[in-house]
């Protein structure tokens, strides 16, 4: 379905804002369309700047992540993206820069983050009334470090009998993600920041992570802090979700914890996120491209719609962000229009339309 709110043609006062859009693949294009449709209903004057990545970029530029697309993202500064399929065991990608230098990354998603110097992925995951069962009150934000750890891409084969990889942990990256988390807590009235680590087994890497976390925590005496081993974090999040508020974690632990928390909330389709940098930010759902349901029109777009709300909040459009968040939560908890992952029969666009109606009613 085509978007009915052509905001470029009908600006509602104020300046037109430009957002980059990476359509992605798998369920990406379907949930991206649904998200644009909902965001346009806020009445904001929006210009979408389409940025080719993956197959679209190969067709246009001969590379899945050409510098033209990276430069377009840097120029637009704020973008949202659909998920991208990464082939198992063949995901590595080399980006060639304008000056001829090259960097190799473990996946295209990792490459986007690192080429743009995005350093933290906040993933706020909240339970929903009538959807999340005993996790209705779940309200946790996972702050995932996204520049290093075992996803640094520093791995190699030793013939076909072994392989080894480096788990990179630097003081700079840990202090940055920790400071961001405590600043976020301060700004948003959050009370507790927890560090998830495995410093008993990984004395040097996770040991440094924990040490830096504790040092930074001292700069924020009004905010409580503690730490759990990553395995105990998983257990306790399931058993005692009320014990958590903000969780800071390295790249891999944060990745895994996000899906765990999404599962507690009720679906991967409920976990939004953003990749934040100093000069650019890219907002995306926590889930992947869900190839198993791609093209069926039944993917749950809620996580990407909520990521769109995070994007609006990030640039200061708090009222519109709240409208989108509340409308999404209302439609979910009413339970009449739900996608199959939540037990309903609605299509992606029927769900988006229900939210759009709610957003428009909110505005009247
Ligand atoms: P996935 O998150 O795509 O899917 C896991 C399960 O959850 C599937 O059964 C899927 O149908 C379901 N699911 C996910 N999102 C859903 C939604 N919005 N609505 C309804 N059901 C949903 O993880 P999977 O299958 O491991 O990965 C698929 C592809 O996505 C892989 O190529 C993977 O590398 C890629 N991926 C991309 C990410 C990104 O672009 N940021 C993140 C994670 C994975």
List keywords for this structure.
single chain; 364 residues; alpha/beta; Isopropylmalate Dehydrogenase; 2 domains; ten-stranded mixed sheet; two-stranded antiparallel ribbon; 11 helices; 14 strands; globular; disordered N terminus; binds 1,4-dihydronicotinamide adenine dinucleotide
What gap, in angstroms, lies between the N and C termini?
25 Å
Order of strands side by side in the largest beta sheet? Answer: 2-1-3-14-13-6-7-12-10-11
The set of bound ligands, ions and cofactors reads: 1,4-dihydronicotinamide adenine dinucleotide
CATH names the topology of the largest domain as: Isopropylmalate Dehydrogenase
Number of domains: 2
Please explain how this structure is put together.
This protein has 364 residues and is α/β, with parallel strands linked by helices. The protein folds into two domains: 1-118 and 271-364, Isopropylmalate Dehydrogenase (3-Layer(aba) Sandwich); 132-265, Isopropylmalate Dehydrogenase, CATH 3.40.718.10. The protein has eleven helices and 14 strands. It has helices at residues 28-40, 55-61, 67-76, 108-115, 171-187, 205-217, 230-239, 251-265, 302-314, 318-334, 348-363; strands spanning 17-22, 46-50, 78-81, 93-96, 102-105, 118-126, 139-145, 155-158, 162-165, 192-197, 224-229, 246-249, 274-277, 281-283. The strands form three sheets. A ten-stranded mixed β-sheet has the order 2-1-3-14-13-6-7-12-10-11, with helices on both faces. α5 (171-187) runs parallel beside α6 (205-217), α7 (230-239) runs parallel beside α8 and α10 (318-334) packs across α11. The longest helix has 17 residues, at 171-187. The radius of gyration is 20 Å and the shape is globular. The model is unreliable at 1-13 (pLDDT under 50). 1,4-dihydronicotinamide adenine dinucleotide binds at residues 26-27, 83-86, 109, 268-269, 284, 287-293, 299-300, 303, 341.
């Amino acid at each position: 379905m085509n978007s009915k709110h052509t905001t470029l043609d009908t600006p509602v006062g104020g300046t037109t804002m430009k957002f980059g859009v990476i359509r992605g693949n798998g369920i990406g294009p379907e949930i991206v369309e649904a998200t644009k449709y909902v965001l346009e209903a806020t009445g904001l004057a929006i210009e979408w700047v389409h940025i080719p990545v993956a197959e679209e970029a190969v067709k246009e530029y001969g590379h899945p992540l050409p510098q033209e697309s990276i430069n377009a993202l840097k120029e637009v500064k704020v973008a949202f993206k659909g998920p991208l399929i990464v082939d198992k065991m063949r995901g590595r990608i080399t980006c060639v820069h304008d000056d001829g230098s090259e960097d190799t990354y473990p996946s295209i998603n990792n490459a986007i983050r690192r080429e743009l110097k995005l350093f933290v992925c906040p993933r706020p995951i909240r339970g929903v009334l009538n959807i999340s069962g005993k996790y209705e009150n779940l309200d946790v934000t996972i702050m995932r470090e996204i520049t290093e750890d075992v996803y640094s891409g520093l791995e190699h084969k030793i013939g076909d009998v072994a392989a080894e990889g480096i788990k990179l942990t630097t003081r700079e990256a840990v202090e940055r993600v920790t400071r961001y988390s405590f600043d976020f807590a301060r700004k948003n009235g959050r009370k507790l920041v927890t560090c998830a680590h495995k410093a008993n087994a990984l004395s040097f890497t996770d040991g440094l992570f924990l040490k830096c976390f504790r040092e930074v925590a001292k700069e924020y005496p009004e905010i409580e802090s503690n730490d759990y081993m990553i395995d105990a974090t998983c257990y306790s999040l399931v058993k005692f979700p009320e014990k958590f508020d903000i969780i800071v974690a390295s790249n891999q632990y944060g990745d895994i914890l996000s899906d765990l928390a999404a599962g507690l909330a009720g679906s991967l389709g409920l976990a939004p996120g953003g990749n934040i940098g100093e000069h650019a930010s890219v907002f995306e759902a926590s889930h992947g491209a869900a190839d198993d349901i791609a093209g069926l029109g039944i993917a749950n777009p809620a996580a990407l719609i909520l990521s769109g709300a995070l994007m609006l909040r990030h640039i200061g459009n708090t009222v519109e962000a709240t409208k989108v968040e509340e409308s999404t939560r209302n439609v979910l908890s009413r339970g009449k229009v739900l996608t199959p992952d939540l037990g309903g029969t609605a299509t992606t666009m029927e769900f988006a339309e229900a939210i759009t109606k709610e957003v428009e009613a909110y505005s009247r």
